[in-house]
Amino acid sequence: MTQTHTEHYEREDGRAIELTYAAPENVVRGGLVVLHEGDGVTDGVRLLITSLAEEGWLAVAPHVKGRPQREDILAATDVTLAWLVDHGVQSDLLGVVGFDLGGVAALLVASNRKLGAAVSVGGQGAGELPVLVDIAGRLTSPWLGIYGDAGDELGASEVEQLREAAAASGAVTNVVRYPGANHRFDADPEAAVEAWQRTLNWFDAHLR
């Protein structure tokens, strides 16, 4: 079974971060930065990392403490991308994926960095919609957004606003809504399976 490893990574310029990663057993297809949820690098995040590695991706999660701000997220992602390049991943085969709060972080990165592909899984409350729409309107990387609308998540009209903003950015985008699924997609197992396959398909299509 694929295992995760954690290491301290430091650049020559002094930038440093803790990273948890998993590597494919065979050929590396590309590298994915996994942006974790609010609780940090949990067992669920480790499972995601190993699952991506089993699909051929060198997957790595930077440990971002507390509730990071925009510059914290971008700085952590930049160092993690450098780690992937150091491990032989070509720049056009780099992507980012985030679940839950990490989904917002992935959208932020996709709007501020030019990567091969980005995926956000999990919605936020409608109160955060103006911020999300503003970020989505500046996308610079191909981006897939996958959202459930159960509980306090984005509803149909909010997801449509996000879709329109992303489309207006000029980047290649797709936004999918699953009625009845929550931000963790554990309320609807069938939706969770399909969302996972959509995620893999997006990276398959854009990182090649």
UniProtKB/TrEMBL annotation:
Task: Supply the SUPFAM superfamilies for this chain.
Answer: alpha/beta-Hydrolases
- Which Gene3D superfamilies does the annotation name? alpha/beta hydrolase
Q: Which GO terms describe its molecular function?
A: hydrolase activity
Specify the Dienelactone hydrolase domain's residue ranges: 70-206
Question: Which first-to-last residue range defines the signal peptide?
Answer: none
Name the UniProt key words of this record, in alphabetical order. Answer: Hydrolase
Pfam families the UniProt entry points to: DLH (PF01738)
Name the PANTHER family on file: ALPHA_BETA-HYDROLASES SUPERFAMILY PROTEIN, CARBOXYMETHYLENEBUTENOLIDASE-RELATED
Q: What is this protein called?
A: Dienelactone hydrolase family protein
Q: What is the originating organism of this protein?
A: Amycolatopsis acididurans
Lineage, top ranks: Bacteria, Bacillati, Actinomycetota, Actinomycetes, Pseudonocardiales
